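Issue: ligand-bound run for 3-phosphoglyceric acid - logging full I/O for the record.

Environment: standard queue, default settings, no custom constraints.

Inputs:
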Amino acid sequence: MGNSLFKKQTIRDIELVGKTVLLRADYNVPLKDGAITNDYRIMQSLPTIQYLLKHNVRLVICSHLGRPKGPHDESVSLKPVAVRLQELLGKQVSFVHGNFTEAAKTVASLAPGQVALLENLRYNPGEEQNDVEFAKQLASLADIFVQDGFGVVHRAHASTEGVTHFLPSVSGLLLEREVDTITSVMSQPKHPLMAIVGGAKIADKIDILHRFIKIADFVAIGGAMANTFLKANGHDVAASLYDKNELSVAKDIMSEAAAEAKKRRFNFYVPQDGVVATKLDKSAPTRIVDWSTHVIAEIENYPKRPSSQASKIAEHEMILDIGPFSGAFIAGAIQLVDTVVWNGTMGVTETEGLQGPVGPFSHGTDLIMEAMLGQFRDSKHKPFSLVGGGDTVGYIEQCGLVEAFGHVSTGGGASLELMAGRKLPGVEALMDKNAKGSESNHER
Ligand code: 3PG
Ligand code: MG
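Outputs:
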């Protein structure tokens, strides 16, 4: 995939010795009852932290967590992150609970190689408002700003954009790798390229669907989003979750895809069968409905004609996963491609199983995962895989499979925006590679 497409300066390009560094991370991690349920973002921030500490900087880390309802919303305190970070680094992390004066005091007391973590930036409304005074305050804590919170660079906030006006600002190693990998997959993918797009809402994925219809060879739809496409195609999806407001968008996307398929070899695939149940529960009885091809229905009833229910979703039933025929079809297509971009699970993977984590609505996702990892039947074919999206990454983490994929992004919205070709304000604001030596790349 050629040379680096990342055009911003990084921590490798700047003199660090003797400096105090303000590092923006994205520690917006999922919490349950005050405990971190997935520390992927923290783990992925370690190489940059270790690099900086090796260069003996005084390190001040900052992040947001969630969307606080007020300045003392304890439910989204970064305290658990400070504890976890301290364990992972094996050194003290001074946690700054309080206000700016306390932050300045703590930072002044740091020796080279020591670390502080500030409390949730969003406790201060100035963060999301990209307030100049708040940005200045943040900047006053350090000599250099390092952006490594890939997950949040699609936001123009005080700690992603504002602060760069007051400090020399460079990228960390995670941000560099994320932007480089995602940009090169989107701009120079090894074809055939397949996009698998799932999850709940079309609204979040419209832009990337348009882009993939232009650049991919195969687009497969799954998750609750597929229900909207099915509904738009005239299928009765009964009690399934779908998006009433997006039916015309779904129709437009399908006609755009159909037009593309006339011009070149291109396939846009909406599931043909699904796993349905009347409730979202691990013990709910499930059934496979084959609304399109009737293949499964025929097999089940062989040698008799399939019953009409076999291809109809009943009144109170919901589609909660793709069916085995659709799963096998997508998995088969994966055998033919060299690159897969995957965002969004095929079904409701949050529902656990009766025994263990694989629930009744995870089989479609599991099947396509196996295919991506070269474990489909006897095929050893393993395309390069780029995975993004919070739920998707959470699930593969839970399965212990993160290492097996090509690149697993720490970004949700940020990775989607980058894939769609949008500029990310938190990246744009960093110093350009060819502007080396300049103190700051722009003034206010
Ligand atoms: C995320 O998890 O999407 C990022 O941390 C950004 O959070 P936000 O969507 O609340 O801005
Ligand atoms: Mg988000």
